[in-house]
Amino acid sequence: MQEAGSSTSEELSRPLLGQNDGIRNDGLIPQLFTSVPVLNDAASYLAQTTSLITGCFSDYSVEHAVRDSGDSIMHAQELVTFSSGQSAESLEYSNNSHSSLSEPSTSGLPSHDGVTTENPSQNTGALVVSNHNGANGISIFQGYGFSIWLIERARRTVRGSADDIGWLQRASGMPPVEEGTERFTEILDNIGHGLHKLPNSMVYLLIPGLFSNHGPLYFVNTKMSFSKMGLTCHIAKIHSEASVEKNAREIKEYIEEIYWGSKKRVLLLGHSKGGVDAAAALSLYWPDLKDKVAGLALAQSPYGGSPIASDILRQGQLGDYVNLRKLMEILICKVIKGLNPNAVNDVGDMQSLEDLTYERRKEFLRKHQLPRELPVVSFHTEAGITPAVLATLSHVAHAELPSISSGQPAKLPVVMPLGAAMAACAQLLQVRYGEKSDGLVTRRDAEVPGSIVVRPQRKLDHAWMVYSSLNDDTSEAGASQVCEALLTLLVEVGQKKRHELAMKDE
């Protein structure tokens, strides 16, 4: 046992696992560290560094108030590795004079990641938490267990989603994609010249994405544009913050209701999470829907997963200590729900974000893939990061103000700098992973296996597809025209597939 009056310099220069600590070196720590001075110095430096870092992590602190003559004592923590046959004394506290208290450890100590430190007499090499205080009140963290744990968490944090982005393109057994950008561009140009080819023999169902319940103008311009062309178009009233499987059931019911009422097949276009929800509905309930659905278009959908969702919710990161997951839970389940006083009870489900992580998407797609006979178009873009984009304001809602003169409420546009937010996220993903994205979804994760892929060169962020911008370039196609072009391409893909199936049957 070290004496409380030893100086700090002596304490720091002492070998990492000195004999005067009563700890043998034939356990988990090799004798190499004490026999080679260079390695021992490096190990001592690592121990000193981790001792300072541990002060930031309250989860590993052991609160035990000891007072002597009115002097307060600061407590740090120390992981000590015991070898076989070691003494079972585990928790030691010392004050600035000479008193000490030691007790045998009789039960497991909880730690992160579900690991429990047991009684050393029961588990050789177990990690035991103890407190040592020198004259300056700061102990040296001498265990290598925490160092390894810290390094692993740092590695996971730095690595992030680098190994997951684009995993669908590397997965075996997935059907290849086909290029459809050129044909899409031709259709879009024709629409700009007034040539519209969408048939009125179908019903068009638009499925909004995450947080759409709080954006009353989500897809509204597209629906109005379709209605002016005499087309039947609906926006699915799903709970945007609900889980993928819950929304899949609601979309199934929507499709069946539309088909029974109109006797027309349904063409689906889902944006962002709405595309994932729609794809899940067709994967899970295809036997019930195959005669009612004509095709599916996914616009900027994280079909393979989202690095934003994964990086926020991934466990085992350094970010666990600022409770990122808890913050997102409060944001989704409390704050955002509170912004909508008419929200139903199941709005604000943390599952909605979890379902977009790579882990959940891999798990789901291993069990449920889209049927091969279903016509599918996937569309993804890259967000611009120019200064002009940073000044872009998106029109997300209307605010009604009472009018004194006319008696009719005046409507004022509610705008948000979504373009700037998307540009910042896109820059982050580009710098960290070297991946192009629309700000939330990387281009590679938005490509659905077996689909016709549209990869426009025009810079468009994730919010552009559903919210109009106050400074849109009128010479360029708008979001409604892009949606029309995607669905027109989907109709052509469906006709081609039906022809190929007919030829195969013959």
Properties at a glance:
single chain, 506 residues, alpha/beta, Rossmann fold, 2 domains, two-stranded antiparallel sheet, 14% strand, disordered N terminus, AB_hydrolase_fold, Alpha/beta-Hydrolases superfamily protein
Provide the fold topology:
Layout: H1 8-13, H2 32-35, H3 37-54, E1 78-81, E2 89-94, E3 100-104, E4 109-110, E5 116-117, E6 127-130, H4 144-159, H5 167-170, E7 178-179, H6 181-192, E8 202-207, H7 220-228, E9 232-235, H8 244-262, E10 265-271, H9 273-284, H10 286-289, E11 293-299, H11 307-313, H12 324-339, H13 351-354, H14 358-367, E12 376-379, H15 387-390, E13 394-401, E14 410-416, H16 418-433, E15 452-454, H17 479-505
Parallel strand pairs: 7-15, 8-9, 8-10, 10-11, 11-12, 12-15
Antiparallel strand pairs: 1-6, 2-3, 4-5, 13-14
Any overview of this molecule?
The structure is a single chain. Helices cover 37% and strands 14% of the residues. It has 506 residues and is of the alpha/beta class. It has 2 domains: 8-159, no CATH class; 167-505, Alpha/Beta hydrolase fold, catalytic domain (Rossmann fold). The longest helix is centred in the last third of the chain and has 27 residues, at 479-505. The protein is globular. It comes from Xanthoceras sorbifolium. Residues 1-21, 91-128 are annotated as: Disordered. This is Alpha/beta-Hydrolases superfamily protein.
